[in-house]
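Predict structure. Chain length: 283.
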Amino acid sequence: MEESYTGLPTSHLLGSVPAVVAEENNATRHEGINVNVVPDANMEIFPPNNGGGGGRGRGGGGGGYQTLGSPTPDTFEQQPTNNWRGVFNVSSYTQYFNIDTDVVVTRLLSSLNPVGGDFFSKIDANPDLYGLIWISTTLVFVLASLGNLATYLMQKHADSSIAWSFDVSYVNMAACSIYGYAIVVPLAYYFFLQYMGSNASLIRFWCMWGYSLTIFIISSFLLMIPFEFLRWTIIIATGASSASFVALNLRSYIEGNDLSVAIVAAFLLQIALAVFIKVWFFV
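Prediction complete.
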């Protein structure tokens, strides 16, 4: 019926556009269609990905369609933390410095209380390297400056006529010893526990050992007291507190594995660090 009407001569009729009306009716019909999209449908991109042999087609061929959401080689290259190249990529470590001041203060206070609970459970959601770097750096400058000041006071107390000069070697020794200890010891424990079959986390080890140095910053100021017996008492108490913090948390971390030797070694290493600080910087 519509075809018979559209075939009639209508040029003499003003405003008669049946073809357009038919098209509008068809468009209206199409707009009224309810298209149900299945969320889990395997949608595909056209044209097919004909790149060199990497993609898989429907029939198992090399030039198939590329599925939406499927990982591409470029996607894998944007994951620097999943391969060894991420170790040397600075952007891989930015997440470990995204931390609030309140969280840092809480972790500092936790490191001063060895029996205050499992430290690893507190940092499990967001371990940081902020404490490792800034606590170590602060301790380096505190030891270098206060060590020189202690030497000055001792010399002036013994003989005020002796000339005194700042000993730059204190800075070098403090940097090498503190940075070396805070980086190498957790790294050695990480590889050792991996070798023994334990699930170790290097970032968490660096975080814990970094915060364990907090108490040495406080005790360095107390070591300015010019009484040798009191100095030794302070440094031994400091070393015991820091060693207990490391050993107790390390024991809870590797619980279930018979690695008592590793825990005792961690305790003795912290005591050795305390003795080293006293002997070298506060003689």
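Summary: The mean pLDDT is 77.
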